[in-house]
C-alpha cells in the first residue's frame, strides 16, 4: 500500500482535468448521500442551482423582495429621485465615521427571520448563504472601493460564552474570500460589556457603545481601507463607534457592510 507521501506525490502529478473530475465525482457522491438543502427553508436544492449561495429560488425571491435602492451613506431605502451618494432624510443630520453602507435589504419579513435565524449557534450555513446572496446582488458595490482587510464587529468575551456563533464573523469570512483579501478577527475587540442596543432609544445608543471597542493591532491597518462587517444596522451607532476607533488607530477609510438595515428604533 502506498504511503501518504507517495499518494500526495501521485495526486500532484495528475493532470488538472483528471484531478478536477475526481473532485467533482466526490462532490456528487456527497450530494447523493447528503443532498444539499436550502439554508433558509431546508428544502432539497436542485442540481441545476447555479447560485453560490445555497438558497432556493423561492427564498431568494422572498429575501430580495425589499432590497430596493438604498442610501449609500446609511443604507436606508430611498425613492427614485434621491441621489444615493448625497445622503437621505434619515442621515442628513448624522455624522458617521464610516464612509458608506452596503446592505442587502430592509430588516423585515423574511429577511428579518433569516437574520434572526443566522444568530443561532449552528447556523453558519445560513449566515454564509446570506453573505453569498448579498455578494451576488451587490458585487459592484463591494468592488467599488479597493478593500485591504475585512473586520467583523466583535462580541464582548462574556457574550461569546453564551453566543457560540457571531454571524458577523461568518459574513466577513465569505466577503474576504470573495474579495481575495485577508480577514482579521483580532484587530478590533470589544473591550467592555454594553446594554443591548435594541433595548435603548436612538438618542442613547451612541453613548452606550462609546469606548466599547479598541484596536489591538494598529500596525495592521495603517493607511488601510477596512470593510467593517455586522449583520444588522439600525441607527449606525455601533458601526460609527467601531469605525471611529479604527480610523483613530490609523485606518484611512472604513466601509460598512451589513445584511439588513432596520428602520425602527
TrEMBL record:
InterPro entries hit by this protein: ComF/GntX_DNA_util-trans, DZR_2, PRTase-like, PRTase_dom
Ranges where the Double zinc ribbon domain occurs: 30-91
SUPFAM superfamilies, per the entry: PRTase-like (SSF53271)
Pfam short name (any one): DZR_2
Domain Phosphoribosyltransferase as annotated: residue spans: 217-262
Protein family per UniProt: Belongs to the ComF/GntX family.
Protein name: DNA utilization protein GntX
Native species: Symmachiella macrocystis
